[in-house]
Amino acid sequence: MDIVEKQWRDLYLFLQKLFILLPLFALIPIINFLSFPVGKERICAEQLLKGRTLYGDDAPFSQPLMDERLFQKFVIEGFATTKHVVIFGSSRSGQISLTPYLNRYASFFNNNVNMADLNDVMVMYGMYKKKNSSLPAVIIVECSPWWLNKNYKAPGLWVTDDAWVTKVISKIYQVYKVCSIGLLQIALKKNLQKIFGKQKDVNVPGARLLPDGQRIYPKSPNDKVLQSVLSLSQYSNIEKFNELNRKAMVEFEGFVKQLLNDGIRVLFFLPPYHPVAYKRLRANQIYDKVFEAQEFFIGCAQNFSIEVVGSYDPEACGCEASDFSDWYHLYEISTEKIFKNVLGSL
Q1: What is the 8-class DSSP label of residue 36?
Q2: Among 248, 212, 256, 245, residue whose Cα is nearest residue 110
Q3: What is the DSSP letter of 101?
Q4: Are 327 and 273 in contact (CB under 8 A)?
C-alpha cells in the first residue's frame, strides 16, 4: 500500500467513525434544550414589571439558556417611569435592595447581570437614556476588580438594536451555549435527580428575583459556606490578572464624567469578599492587581468627589463570615450594614 492510498484509507476510517458518533453529538443540544427554559426573557420581564416575584425557572439568572442581558433590556424598556435610585453591577450587588430604606426618593431598581463588566453597565445606562426623558437621580456603580482585568471576557452579548450582524452573533452565541458539554453535565444531573425523586434547582436552589431586581438566595449553614471557601483552588474572574487594563480605566473615568455631567449623583460600591478569601487574596502576590484595581476606583472617587460604599475588606464594612453565601456573594441582610452611612440621604 503506497502513502497516498494509506492517507485515503485513514481519511475514510475517520469519516466512518465521525458518522457513527454524529447521532451522539446531536443529542447534546437536544438534551440541553429540553432541560432548561429558553426564550422566556420577555415574558419574565413582563411578570416582574407587574410586581410579581420570579421563582426557579422564571428567574433568568438561575437558568443557563436564558439571556440575562436580553431580560434587562426588556425590563428597562418596560418601565413606565424612570427609577429614582438604580444599581448597576454583577451578581455581587444583586442581593442589595434599598426599597425599604427610601425616604427622599420614591423608587429603586437593581440592574444586576451575572459576571457583568464595564460594558454591561454602560450599555444599560444607554438604555435608560434612550428610554426616558428623565434619568435616575442616583446611580450606584459596583466596582469589581475584573472590570480592569485585561484577560477577563464577559460571558454574554447585548442585542441593543436591529442590526443583522448583532443578531447573527447573538444567535451563534446561543447555539454555542446549547451545545456546551458543561451544560450537558448539569442537565443530566438535573434529570437524574428528577427521575429518582430528588429534584432541586441545580443552579441556585430556592432562588428568586424580587420586583425591584433584588435576587435572593436561601441561607446555607456557615460551616458549609466556610468549607466551600477553604476548598477553593481558583478565584473566578480574577485569575490571570497580571495587568490593569488601561483602556478600561480611561473608559471608566469617561463613563463617570458622563454620569456627573448628566446631573446624576454617583456612588461607588466596593463589594467585600468572605473574610477567609480576603486574607488569602491579600497574602498571595498573584492577586496584587485586585487591590491595585480597588486603589484605582478609590482614587477615581476622590478625583470626582464621589461617595464610596463598602470595601473589598469585609472588616472595613462591618461584614462577618455569616454575611456570605460563598467567597464573594453577600446575603441580602448585609445591605443595612454596608450602606448605613448613606441610607439617610436616600
Answers
A1: S
A2: 212
A3: G
A4: yes
The string of pLDDT tens digits covering residues 186-208 is 556 666 666 666 544 444 446 89
- 138, exposed or middle or buried, with CB in 10 Å at 0-12, 13-18, 19+? buried
d(CA 251, CA 168): 27
Strand, helix or coil for residue 55: strand
Tell me the CA distances in angstroms from 106 to 77, 78, 166, 167, one per residue in order. 19, 18, 36, 36
Residue 66 in contact with residue 178, Cβ under 8 Å?
no
Q: Domains of the chain by range and CATH?
A: 1-35+155-203 (no CATH), 82-152+206-345 (3.40.50.1110)
Question: In which order are the strands placed within the sheet that holds 265-270?
Answer: 108-112, 85-89, 138-142, 265-270, 307-310
Instruction: Please tell me the distance from the alpha carbon of residue 33 to that of residue 55, in angstroms, as a whole number.
Output: 20
Rounded to an integer, what is the distance from CA 301 to the centroid of its chain? 23
Q: Give yes or no for a contact between 95 and 214, defined as CB atoms under 8 angstroms apart.
A: yes
pLDDT for residue 63 = 81
Quickly tell me which residue has 454555542 as its cell: 176
Grid cell locating 186: 448539569
Reply yes or no on whether the pLDDT at 320 is more than 60.
yes
Is residue 336 predicted with pLDDT exceeding 90? no
Alpha helices in 36-154 (DSSP H): 41-49, 68-78, 118-131
